[in-house]
Amino acid sequence: MLPEHSYMIKRSVFVDETLENFIKTFYNDVDVNTNVNNTNNVNGVDINIMTANLQKIIDLQQQQLAMKDKQIDELTTMLKQSQEQQTILVQALNAAQALAAIGKQQFFLQAAEQTTEQPENPEVPENTKKGFFQRIFRK
Questions:
Q1: Which of 17, 29, 46, 65 gives 20 to 30 Å between its CA and that of 23?
Q2: What is the pLDDT confidence band of residue 36, given thresholds at 50, 70 and 90?
Q3: In the chain, what are the domain boundaries?
Q4: Whole-angstrom Cα distance, residue 95 to residue 110?
């Protein structure tokens, strides 16, 4: 499938010096105003062979482009799925934060209710109540 004097590494086509020089020679030596006079040779290069080789290169590059397009489509699909999952996770985290805030609010309300139910100055029997000097000197 690859033209002679070319090879592929990781889905990229490389040409060796022979094919590179051949292509350069064809394009550098061909004069636009040259009359071909119904021959298939230009500067010693067979046009049919050159055309066939160039067509093979074009076909190969079109196949590579189609593969890249498919990869881009797959990556785009994966990115959309990832964004959807991220949106769902953000919504779940927001809901969890709201529930946590409600739980804290209920805790504080219950704590406030308990403090209002307790008397402000609980009566302590006098015999257990110690004065300032008694606590310091411990008699």
A1: 65
A2: very low
A3: 6-106
A4: 23
